[in-house]
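Write out the 3D structure for:
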Amino acid sequence: MDGYGIPYEVLLVPQGGIALPQLNQTNGDGNYGLFLVISQVSYNFGDQWRSALTQDQWNAMYDYQTVYGVRMIHINAYPSSQFGTEALGGCCSAGDDQIVTVDKNIAAEQFPTAGLNFGTWSAVSNYLNHVWINWGLFGLFAGYRRVLFNSQIDDLFLPSAIYGTDGGTFRLRPSDVTEHLSWQADLNTRLVSGGNAGSNYFIEFAFNGNGNFIYTQTIGVGKTCANPIGFVRGEEVTPLEYQKILGTGTDMWPPNSTFTWTLACMKKDPLVLQFMDKTYRDAFGLMSHTFTHLGENPITYDDAYREITFNQNFAKLATFTSAAKWSGKGLVPPAITGLHNGDALRAWSTAGLTSCVGDNTRPPLISPFNLYWPFITNMSSNGFDGFNVIPRFATRIYFNCDTANCTLQEWIDTSAGKGDIFDLLNLERESTAKNLLALRQDPYMFHQANLRWYDVDQLTINGNTKRYSLLEMWVESVLDEFVQYVNWPIITKKHDDMTTAFMNRMARDQCQYNISWNTAADQKSIIGFNVGCQTGNKCNVPIPVTIPIGNSITNVGSFKTEQIGNDPLTLWVTLTGAIKTFTLTTPIKLTAAGGAGLKISSSSKASSTTKPTSTSASNKPNSSGASSGAATTTTTSMMATIAASAPATSMTMRTNTLVTSTSPATTSSPLDPATVDSSSAGAGPSSVDSVSQISAPSVTDAAVSDSGDDAVTANVQASTSDVSPANKHRRRRDKQIHIRHRGRRHSKF
C-alpha cells in the first residue's frame, strides 16, 4: 500500500478489545472501501485462542460489507471452512514445506489487470500483496504503480584502487563504454519483446572532472595540460556520521584556485572525448560527483563550493549540460560524506543544487516518516535546513572491484559471504526483486571499476555464456528474477526527475488525498469517483488515481492521463480548492467475486460531498455499521487495517505514512475457529453468500517448487503451535523473499 501511495487507516486492537471507528457518516456515506484483517485479531486467552473483536463487531463489519459491497481480506488466517480450507494437523517434519497449488488459468481470470506472471517459476510471498490489493480495491484507487530502476555509476574519469591487489588500479576505457552502450540498447529490446512493454533502462554516470586532468598529466600524450588539483595536506579521517561545527576547518584546496583547463586539454583524454560524442552523451544519464572526490565531512564552505563549481565548469566545457539526460541540480557526494556538515550543504545549495543521494545502510540518512519520502536535512542533525536526500541502495558489488573474483573475495573477506559468484548474485536478485515488488524507487550504487568488460573472463548468466561486467551480470540477474513475476514496465529516470518523483510523493501525501466511490442507485456498481484532500482540496502537486485496465473516464477534461506499457491508466488530478468528480466509462460491478476483474481503491478518510439519492433515516446503517435497508450512493474508499496489538492503546489513524502493525509472537497466532468462544468472537459468513463476504486467505511463507506447467505451487508453512508462521517468517535473518531456485526456469527476457 505504501508503495502504491494508497492511504489507509490502522486500528490496533489490544487483547481487551476496542471500539470500532465509525464505519459510515451521518448522511449515510460509507467511510471504508476495504477491510484488511491481520491474524484474525487473535490472542491466546489461556484456555483458547480467540479474536479480541466481539461477535457484534464482526457482524457490524459484515453488515457494512453487505450494504456497501466492499470486501474483507484476511492475512495470516488459520485454515477453516470460513475460507474454504482445512487444517490437517501437519504433513511432515519440522521445516518441511506444505504445498498449495494455485491454478494459473484461474489466477489470470480473477486477477487480469495485476500484470502477474503465474507459472512454476514464480515466487509468491511478497508478490501476493499485489493480488489482494488489486482484488480487494476493485482496481480504482488513489495512488499508482510505477517501477523505477536506476543504476548510478560513481567515480567516472577517476582511477580506482582495486581490492586484493598490490597497488593495482583500474580506469574505465572507451571499449568498456562502447560495450555498455550496445548492451543497454539490447537489454531494452529484450525487455519489451519479452513482455515488459514500455521499459526504458539507462545507466547514469556521476563524474569527477579532476580525473580528466589526472589522466592527461600521468598518461596523456605530451603532458602539456595544467596540473590537476592537489591538496595542501592529507585528508582528515572522520567517523561516518561526524557532525562538523559550523565555520570550523582549514582549506584543503590550494589558495586562489581557478578553473584554467582548456577544451583542447580535455580532449587529450579519449574517455572524456567519447562522452562528449553526442551518441554516448545522450544515451546515458550524467550528474556531478564533485570535482576531486574530496571527503566532505570536515571540509570548509570554500572547499565544498569549489568542488561543486569546478565540476559545473567542467560539465559546461564538455557539453554535458546539453546532454539529453543531464541532471544539474543533483549530486552524488563522495562516499556519501558532508551530510552532517552544514557548511558543505550550504555550499551545495548556493551552487544551485537541491538534492543528493544518501545511503540506505545508514539510518540517519533515511526519512523517519516514510521510506518512500526523501530525507530532509535539518539544522539540529545536519547543520542546514531543507536539503533533499534521496535514499539509495548499496549492493554486494563493491566500489573497488573490477571482476567477479574480486567482488566475491571482498564479500567473503568483509561480510562472511559463502559460495561462489552465483551465490552472491542470487542474494542480490532476491533482495532486489523484493525492493522492486515493493515499488521502492531508490537508485542502486555502483562505481566505474564495476564496468570493466573488455578483458574479463566469460561467465554463464541466465544460460548465456559470454563476457559480463559486474554491472551487466548484476542487472541481468536481478531483472531476470523480476520479469518472471510481472509484466510491468521497468523505467529509469535521471536523477533530477527521480528527485521530483520523490518530492511530489511527499508533497501529495502531506495533502492527505482521498477518493470516494459514487455507486449506482441499486448499489451494485461503482459508476464514478470524487477526488479531494484534507488541505482544503488544494494540493501543489497532482494526485494520481489508478483506473482499472480496460476502463476509462468520460470527463477527463484538461487533466493529464498516462499509461505506460502494461501499467494501468493513471489520471493525474490537480486540486485547486474544490473536489473533482469523474465518471467511469464502464461501471465496476460490486455483485460478483472477481466479476469486475482486478480493481483497486483506497484513500484517506474525508467527508464526501456527494449525497445519497434515495436514503431515509430508517434504512441508513447506524454508527456501528449495522443496516436494515438500502445503502447510500457514496463510499469513501479508505482502506482499514485491523491488527492485534500487545499494548492496550487507542485507535491509531495514519494515512499516507508508513505504518507498522505487526504483533509480537507472544500475542499473535493463527486462530482456529473451532476453538472460538462464540460469546466473544464471531465466525465469518459463508464464502458463497455474497461478494462482500468473500475473504482471501494469504500465504505467509512461500517457496517455488516443481509441479508442472499449468500451476504455480507455493510451499505454505501452516502451524498449530503458539508461534505463528508469520512471526517465524519475520525473524528470518535476511528478511527477504524466501525463494528456492529449484529447477528454476529462466525468463523470456
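The radius of gyration is 28 Å.
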